[in-house]
Design brief:
alpha/beta; Rossmann fold; six-stranded mixed β-sheet; two-stranded antiparallel ribbon; 3 helices; 10 strands; globular
Length: 183
């Protein structure tokens, strides 16, 4: 068992911090500044992909200095596995009318790219003015789809990660940093 702040992590693997709380805060602020500059004078609809993207989205939209409407879409491709199944399911759709609006799709991580491609296709059918993507983590070594995010917090190697919205089973999304496991 490993003690990390208020949280007790229980498993047979040793956690190794990949991105600290301070690393994350600094990067989210930087992304917020850049997005605000790029969308200066425009309103955007930020679409958070649940469940993994909720913490990153909450932190990011608080850094935006432009008007922003936030909506949510629930997708699933991992279930309880450490790698994507490749099958993307849209569990719940957005409720906001996005016709002729600027849309920013926000997710915790892009690895295979399959989820983002499916979401972009669905969003495009709703007639937005523009669609851009923002991910906290990009794992290009796992990419299957021909897509790259427009805004990226960190590019990481092909390792299984947990924390800051990313889960292991149904747990550990609430850990404020991102870690991997030492074998």
């Amino acid at each position: 068992m490993e003690e990390r702040g208020r949280l007790r992590l229980e498993w047979n693997k040793n956690p190794k911090v990949l991105l600290s709380v301070d690393n994350i805060k600094e990067k989210v602020k930087e992304l917020g500044t850049r997005i605000s500059k790029d969308y200066q004078g425009a309103d955007i609809v930020a679409i958070c992909l649940l469940r993994g993207g909720f913490i990153f989205t909450a932190d990011l939209v608080r850094e935006l200095e432009i008007p922003v409407n936030v909506d949510f879409m629930t997708t699933s491709s991992y279930e309880h596995d450490e790698i994507s199944s490749g099958m993307v399911e849209i569990i719940s759709d957005i409720r906001t009318d996005i016709r002729d609006k600027h849309v920013l799709i926000i997710d915790d991580i892009m690895d295979s790219g399959n989820t983002m491609v499916k979401v972009i296709d669905l969003i495009a059918q709703k007639g937005p003015k523009t669609i851009k993507t923002c991910v906290m983590l990009d794992k290009p070594g796992r990419r299957e789809a021909d897509i790259s995010p427009d805004y990226v917090g960190f590019t990481i190697p092909d390792v299984f990660i947990v924390g800051y919205g990313l889960n292991y089973g149904d747990l550990y999304r609430n850990i404020p940093y991102i870690f991997t496991f030492d074998d």
